[in-house]
Design brief:
- Helix content is 20%, strand content 38%.
- By secondary structure, the protein is of the alpha+beta class.
- Among the domains are: 77 residues, no CATH class; 98 residues, no CATH class; 132 residues, Glucose Permease (Domain IIA).
- α2 crosses α4 and α5 packs across α7.
- The termini are far apart.
Length: 486
């Protein structure tokens, strides 16, 4: 090969190498694009994130019309990430939109509101209520719904006066609301809300949901001849308070029902705890005590009235705490005697303590007292006794009748509690006491101090849980204790 041929060969190799090199560089020029991920999986590349967002917004007129919004946003499970690529295929925003449209819900701007759960005392013990999450486009819808729900537990007129600062001072008796608040923490966060999620657009629907925990139609009942509000509520596992909340056309258990009338039997499941703290002054009858004197000269079983009793009248001031319409605490703040009581004195022959309960039952607490929770259904469960409060921690608890103490101990739920067998078919139960004054096996007499008022165990305030059972406590049949004091 001559020198000329060699030179041409070298030049040809240089030229071909240059073409290959520059061709390679041109085919692999880097470019800035956006990769679109749906549920973490890549579905393609586009040149412009803004163009895809604008196209999605333009295509969703039906969503804008339904929710009354001006803009629609990408799905929450869609990510658009900037990256540098070389020779990968770039798709149109229309093609990417079609991949998204049937697989992922678009979003609109709104507010995700979380109502945090709180500790709740139940018959089974202590537990945390569930968080409740609701979505709204307008915060005012939520605010108005909260006011409506509060109005289910507090008289609207009283609540308005509290908010406006126009409550009249108490002259002799009456009530002043000192504070109203929600026990739950509420978190309000602006968010892109999926159109597949429930979004509350009006106050009525959200108010119903916050009160009943559902938007489903509530069960109805047609009133029969002889029905009363108390009877209908009890037979359908409702408290009177729950019945009145579900049927706001009534304001008292004494309201009359008529045959054929339709009422609602919805069990309320409030999303939050409405707490009302108030200062109340009431005039209350103070029942006279019966004092027994014993005369050894009289035959056993004979007796006579030495002095008739007269009821007194006391003006009682209390600090009340009410949660969702239920009294959880009633702390005495003062008592003024308006008219003193006169004890009834009965003289009996040859005093003897019997372990068998007699016909007359003794009230188990001091006076003045109040019943914070009656016997009956509440929150779908039967409250098998009375919750009695208003006499203060450490005040005496009395045996309701003669009998034998079968239990006097501490339990994690009942706190300090006592069971008494009255040997006449009935048992009585006393729970949440601060201290015990008797022991198991001890014979007690009606009116004898057996313990003191407290709030031990699972208790929301100072009170006595008092129950009367036939057969045995908890395994027998419970009765409304008030039936024994008529």
């Amino acid at each position: 090969m001559n020198k000329k041929t060699i030179l041409y060969t070298v030049l040809a190799l240089i030229i071909s190498s240059s073409v290959f090199f520059f061709g390679y560089k041109k085919a692999y020029d880097p470019q800035e694009v956006y990769r679109v991920y749906l549920d973490g999986e890549s579905i393609g590349l586009i040149y412009s994130k803004e163009e895809l967002e604008t196209y999605i917004d333009a295509e969703q007129e039906s969503i804008k019309e339904k929710y009354g919004v001006d803009k629609v946003y990408i799905p929450n499970n869609l990510d658009i990430v900037k990256e540098i690529t070389y020779n990968e295929k770039i798709e149109s925003v229309v093609a990417i939109y079609e991949k998204i449209n049937d697989k992922a819900p678009f979003t609109i701007k709104g507010y995700r509101i979380t109502i945090k759960g709180v500790e709740e005392i139940t018959d089974e013990g202590s537990e945390m209520t569930d968080d409740v999450v609701v979505n709204v486009l307008d915060k005012q819808v939520f605010i108005d719904s909260v006011d409506n729900t509060i109005g289910a537990f507090i008289e609207e007129e009283d609540y308005e006066k509290f908010l406006n600062g126009t409550q009249e001072p108490i002259k002799e008796t009456g009530t002043i609301i000192e504070d109203v608040y929600l026990q739950n923490d509420i978190l309000i966060k602006e968010a892109n809300i999926s159109i597949r999620d429930k979004i509350f657009l009006n106050t009525d629907d959200l108010s119903k949901y916050l009160l009943f925990g559902t938007l489903e139609e509530q069960q109805k009942y047609v009133v029969k001849l002889g029905d009363t509000i108390e009877k209908v509520a009890f037979n359908n596992k409702l408290s009177v308070g729950e019945f009145l909340i579900a049927n706001d056309q009534f304001n008292s258990a004494d309201n009359l029902l008529y045959e054929g009338q339709e009422v609602t039997l919805g069990i309320i499941k409030p999303a939050f705890k409405v707490v009302e703290e108030n200062h109340t002054v009431t005039d209350e009858v103070k029942q006279y005590d019966t004092i027994y004197e014993y005369d050894d000269t009289l035959i056993i079983g004979t007796e006579y009235v030495k002095q008739e009793g007269e009821n007194g009248l006391s003006r009682v001031t209390r600090k009340m705490k009410i949660v969702n319409g239920d009294i959880v605490e009633a702390l005495p703040a003062g008592t003024e005697e308006i008219q003193p009581t006169v004890s009834k004195i009965i003289v009996r022959g040859n005093r003897e303590v019997s372990s068998i309960g007699g016909g007359k039952w003794h009230w188990p607490t001091a006076q003045p007292y109040m019943i914070s929770s009656p016997y009956g259904w509440r929150w779908g469960k039967l409250h098998q006794g009375l919750d009695i409060t208003g006499t203060g921690r450490g005040s005496p608890i009395y045996a309701a009748n003669n009998g034998v103490v079968t239990k006097a101990e501490y339990h994690s739920y009942n706190g300090y509690y006592i069971h008494i067998d009255h040997n006449n078919g009935y048992f009585s139960e006393y729970a949440h006491m601060d201290s015990l004054k008797v022991k198991k096996g001890q014979i007690v007499e009606a009116g004898q101090i057996i313990g003191t008022m407290g709030d031990t165990g699972f208790s929301t305030g100072v009170h006595l849980h008092f129950g009367i059972w036939a057969g045995s406590v908890h395994n027998g049949t419970s009765y409304n204790p008030l039936l024994f004091y008529r």
